[in-house]
């Protein structure tokens, strides 16, 4: 079974420790390392650092936000990482990102996301075609971009989204999905169904698709400690309205409204206290090593082909986080 470990770009942890954890993941039998980018660290550069210290593990992105990266940058980064890693780029994950972050931190207004994504994918595939490439569109228009790679790179392009419209578009033009870091069986079923119906409606000849999902993962020999460590991560995600399609499939809609209200009023501790143990059970993988392995097996049963393990470290000091990652990796060795 395929299994990925993610390092998100805002992870406060020395790069030397991240590299060590990437090496450990390869030794433990993980199939992929997936780098997430929003701000702080560059996902492609971080992937390159890990690639130069490993030999087998593949690389993905979950995700690159298309408002902050041009398709030219992604194509060049992908080609470079693939060359350095000796053809180990497994997939490129693209998404819109979180509106509040993109618009506040980068000063970029998010609009026309579906139409822009269509063109973005066309341009990215063209740039990796092994030929000079010209494109005429509403968002991108250019003449004879010089041949970027010596041969066509058929690297899968996955869409990172929770919303039905982008998932429907993914079924038309992508190679699969990267679902967000909280999920339920009902949501997984609905998202996969939406994707598959779109594939069928589009009459695509392609039959094999990757359905990846980021998963909050918290493991400890003491169950209560694992639950506690996952709570800040769940709080982080439920604050974003982009996760509403997931939240609507849970019994926590009203509670999350209260959580958002407290958080927007500056009451972080009160908001965190409203994240219940039941929410952690339903929305994450948390518990003892044995419990976590059992829960991960269920994820595959929901139709997820590539779980992407997002280790919970917020409650730990920066110099403790490497050990937390290593414990998580070891708990899933040779799955």
Automatic annotation (TrEMBL):
Domain Luciferase-like: 13-305
Keywords, sorted A to Z: Monooxygenase, Oxidoreductase
Pfam family, one: Bac_luciferase
Name of the molecule in the record: Putative Luciferase-like monooxygenase family protein
Domain of life of the organism encoding this protein: Archaea
InterPro entries linked: F420-G6PD/mer, Luciferase-like_dom, Luciferase-like_sf
Enzyme class: oxidoreductase
GO MF annotation, one: monooxygenase activity
Stretches that traverse the bilayer: none
EC number(s) recorded for this UniProt protein: 1.5.98.2
